């Protein structure tokens, strides 16, 4: 049961994806009950469909994946049944919210509700109905797992002992890691440019309403939104989803089907929005986005403002975090802080995670320095000006307690949690009726202990 915590997480992901797509016509699996846990069954098709879904997404699937997932499915059922015994709270509202979020993710992935329904071979309502029980079971199992391990703590002596158990020739090698903060200003276009773009958008609206062109063609030709222009500007939106700009969202839901909005300004630029289809709080819309371009004059004004901020930082009259909160136009800095973050949420990043302009800047800086205000473009092509702060930089090295205590502590804590979960599972297994099909167990030696005549 090594790395049980990680494997269970992988199982939850695979099974949730399978629950949404398992009726695709490409999948032809002779179904049978592979295992029984209490009064719950595990179907062979659930496991195999999960593996096929992973392959279709281009993920590497190990040869032992079926056996691995089967064992995790057994343990997941035990966790779920114990959660029900302990009356851990998972409400219908939480399940429905999870279903809605997952459906939206798949709609965004495939481009539209119609595309998702075609791929799944089901309507959205059927997809939700088929997945509802599976999602509830997953949430119960995850809740039980959290209850078992959340109070596990680690001491400095345990961290040291964990580190000393690692063979010296197996210690990982860490590339140079950096802590980098930035304060960003996005200059606003001049009033004249804004009025020009607004006039252009009104002209597009007239062309659409007089049938001189169609929305799809215009979106592909003119929209500044790279995420939607090739899909004719189409998005699936939900009234309650907080990730959308509030002005954009409220405009969408004021429109009737087929209606095109007047030009409306959001934080991204000017939009024309067409309501394609609406069903309650869900809607399919098309939009054309135009971002008013900023000139060199606006860039220079932003650089001048940030130069003043830089002087305050160097003089020590304001701290970097305070300055970012007060001056930065980067929304994430207001809530998550001004430092770049790694995939795991850490503020230590490697050079390959930086844009090429940032790499050039950092190469000329010393730890503790603030860069000059420099113009740049973000991933969406929006022009801005930024100050970069190099807070710290590590040299490439083998893992050691001095430089990597925090990482080692996290590794040791995860191991202790995994062992705690293992011990709990070993103690609980005999209290549940578990039976695995003889044929399935024969293919997976690690499942032999679950076969009825061995219990």
How many strand units?
13
What name goes with the CATH superfamily of the largest domain?
Porin chaperone SurA, peptide-binding domain
Main structural class = alpha+beta
Major sheet: size, sense and barrel closure? 4 strands, antiparallel
The H-and-E topology, N to C, reads as HEEHHHHHHEEHHEHEEEHHHEHEEEHEH
Distance between the termini: 18 Å
Major sheet: order of its strands? 9-4-11-10
Kindly identify the CATH topology of the largest domain: Triger factor/SurA peptide-binding fold
Report mean pLDDT, rounded to a whole number: 86
Give the overall shape, derived from the CA principal axes.
flat
Q: If helices are DSSP runs of H or I spanning 4 or more residues, what is the number of helices?
A: 16
List the uncertain runs: 1-18, 21-29
Descriptive account of the structure:
It is flat, with a radius of gyration of 27 Å. Residues 1-18 and 21-29 have low confidence and may be disordered. It has a 4-stranded antiparallel beta sheet, with helices on both faces. A 4-stranded antiparallel beta sheet has the order 5-8-7-6, with helices on both faces. It has 3 domains: 4-154 and 411-454, Triger factor/SurA peptide-binding fold; 174-188 and 295-397, Chitinase A, domain 3, CATH 3.10.50; 191-290, Chitinase A, domain 3 (Roll), CATH 3.10.50. It has 16 helices and 13 strands. By secondary structure, it is of the alpha+beta class. Helix 4 (92-110) crosses helix 6 (124-149).
